[in-house]
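Predict structure. Input: Bifunctional protein FolD, 283 residues.
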Amino acid sequence: MAAHLIDGNALAAKIRADVAHRTAALKARGIEPRLAILLVGDDPASDVYTRHKVKDGTETGLAATLERYPAQMAESELLARIRALNEDRAVHGILVQLPLPRHMDAQKVIEAISPAKDVDGFHVASAGALMVGRPGFWPCTPYGCMKMLESIGYELRGKHAVVIGRSNIVGKPMAMMLLQKNATVTICHSATPDLGAFTRQADVIVAAVGKRNILTADMVRPGAVVIDVGMNRDEAGKLCGDVDFEAVRQVASHITPVPGGVGPMTRAMLLVNTLEAAERASA
Ligand SMILES: Nc1nc(=O)c2c([nH]1)NC[C@@H]1CN(c3ccc(C(=O)N[C@@H](CCC(=O)O)C(=O)O)cc3)C=[N+]21
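Output follows.
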């Protein structure tokens, strides 16, 4: 029997409706949640992504403004702009679109953002807060994955979760979130020999590598839940994930599609974090 699809578009729509509701309540108190998006350079993909984020904001009543800067912008200038936004009480969230031009130190730029406005959850203070279980902002992609597991009523306690990928923005925070829900967590990565030996023992698999077909059907235990964070293109140029979707869906109990899975959830959680930032600032 084929797996149930976890529909990221539908779940994201529900979350956006809730964000719209809470945003209206804040506005009734005279607070307009505001997200500043900073885009440096003219990468076409970043252009599309940031315009999507502005549109998501507008549709839910949040004010999202896009600031565009030339690729040659000096790092010091970007840092100065971030410091000004940190001081601006009308701005609740700051997002610097990645990747940044090569002459900039992305981590240094991120560390300039006030942790109270770090709605991407990329600041070391946010990473530290997640690790020790204190309030902070969770990175949007793994946060969205947790919401997808929650949406199917999945009980993580005592389950074995295998995360493939150890990036600072997905793999590592994903592992921490699963651990916080009392799963037994294994992190696999490029130096893991025999990936399948690990994934075959998993109740939940999160694939976050950025490589097509890294997870095939023979690597999945029947009934496992599979979350696909990958964003790749096949030879026809079609968007696809890290999972051999058609084959794995015959084995898994639940699976997320690409597109229409984790991607829309990432965008929805950015709205949630921005709203949360505004609520905290006004509390
Ligand atoms: N500071 C920063 N924060 C980010 O969150 C961030 C970033 N930089 N840089 C780039 C990546 C990429 N990213 C995506 C989010 C959603 C979709 C998404 O909604 N994808 C749709 C498909 C879109 C399409 O058709 O191309 C889907 O999967 O269904 C895609 C990509 C956020 N990023």
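The chain is about 40% helix and 15% strand.
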